[in-house]
Amino acid sequence: MKDEDSHLIRVYIFNMYPYPDAEQGLGIPQKFLALLKGTENSVVPITIGHFEGQALAMALRKIALPRPLPHDLLCNLLKRIDAVVHKLVVHTLKEDVFHAYLLVQAEGQSFYLDCRPSDGMILATLLDVPLFMTPEVMEAAGQPLEHSDQREADKGEQAAALAEDKAAEREGAAKKSEAFVDPQTGEPISQLEQLKAHLDWLIAQEAYEQAAKVRDRISKLESEG
């Protein structure tokens, strides 16, 4: 395994952006762009689906949902059968499509499990597994960090700004705890309880990016007592 890794490039998820789909308009990001960075000053941008992007964002922020998503289910299954995932490798770029595999060990045998890079990144993040890339993919798809990062950041920020405005409208009421009362008791509902309720609503709507920020606010309030 060490000999196999010797020619691979260790990479990590440098950043993620919501990526507007030109056909769907700028208002709602339909995709995400994940930037994989190695030791050199370059990144490989990989476009992933909206659902996968949300799941990866949740995994990176270590936000657990009340019920498991498909990737959580697979991770739990792997753990249940004592399987060990050693690494994710993005090995080929063919016709603008990235191909990857997971190296898995189970019952004393190792095997390669073909996967999409998006699914592989989510599993690798959930299981704290290292990511690798072949030099061929890095050479074919690598872009200078300063150009790629700024260009995609500008696109992502435009799309995210509109989504943030909508989220801010929904969250604005939660900042005024005196304005909300429990309909059963008539007692004021605290800001913390309002945020928790709002978090549940965002998760139900699969608005995981906004849910992550609300979760951070909840954690801050709870740490402050």
Could you walk me through the main structural features you see in this protein, from its secondary elements to its overall organization?
- It is built from 8 helices and 8 strands, in the order αβββααβββαβαβααα.
- It is an alpha+beta fold.
- The chain folds into 2 domains: about 150 residues, Bifunctional nuclease domain; about 60 residues, no CATH class.
- An 8-stranded mixed sheet has the order 6-5-4-7-1-2-3-8.
- The radius of gyration is 20 Å and the shape is globular.
Give the helix proportion (percent range).
40-55%
Shape: globular
Could you say which structural class the secondary elements and strand pairing correspond to?
alpha+beta
Q: Characterize the biggest β-sheet.
A: 8 strands, mixed
The rounded Rg comes to 20 Å
The span between the termini is 48 Å
How many helices in DSSP terms?
8
What is the name of the CATH architecture of the largest domain?
Answer: Roll
Sequence stretches where pLDDT stays below 50 over 5 or more residues:
156-164, 173-184
- The ordered string of helix (H) and strand (E) elements is HEEEHHEEEHEHEHHH
